[in-house]
Write a structure and sequence with these properties.
Thrombin, subunit H; about 160 residues; mainly beta; Chitinase A, domain 3; 4-stranded antiparallel beta sheet; 2 domains; 2 helices; binds zinc ion
């Protein structure tokens, strides 16, 4: 069986940043499961895995455009310190859930604190980064109708309802 749309795929992988720093990994003990072709993973990795079989190994370098996007300066904003009621010590690197105008929640990272002003970055933490994956395909199976309906993997390795 080959990786194609609507297949449930499990992977071992190591993800490193541009400097070779370890960002994330899925070990043989805890492989990562996803449904191919439905946007569960970044487009560049999905493209690289298309047509692969169980046991295949690949190393891919994915530019930001095919990963979490370029860093968008428009998404760096200044908020007054008073917006963080209850937080006394705001430091660069801290992350908060902020409510957007459309009522969704978005992760924002404190980039800097300047007096009464807090500079917030709501880009994805990996935006602007080239991502280097070492991947091994572990298993491939058909997704169930219910999994396709929900858009995520069920079973011991996935969601329980
Ligand atoms: Zn579900």
């Amino acid at each position: 069986m080959q990786i194609a749309a609507r297949k449930v795929v499990s992977l071992h992988y190591t993800l490193r940043g541009e400097e070779g720093d370890l960002i994330d990994q899925a070990t043989p003990e805890e492989p990562f499961f996803y449904i191919h072709g439905v946007g569960n993973i970044i487009p560049g990795l999905e493209k690289a895995l298309d047509g692969k079989s169980a046991g295949d190994k690949l190393s891919v370098s994915i530019p930001p455009e095919d990963a979490y996007g370029l860093h968008d300066k428009e998404q760096v904003q200044i908020a007054p310190r008073s917006a963080f009621y209850g937080v006394t010590d705001i430091k660069p690197g801290m992350q908060f859930q902020a409510e957007t105008e459309s009522g969704h929640y978005q992760l924002v990272t404190v980039q800097a604190v300047d007096g009464d002003q807090v500079i917030l970055d709501s880009n994805h933490p990996l935006a602007g980064q080239t991502l280097n994956f070492d991947v091994e395909v572990v298993s491939i199976r058909d997704a169930s109708a219910e999994e396709l309906d929900h858009g995520h993997v069920h079973g011991p390795e996935g969601h329980h309802h």
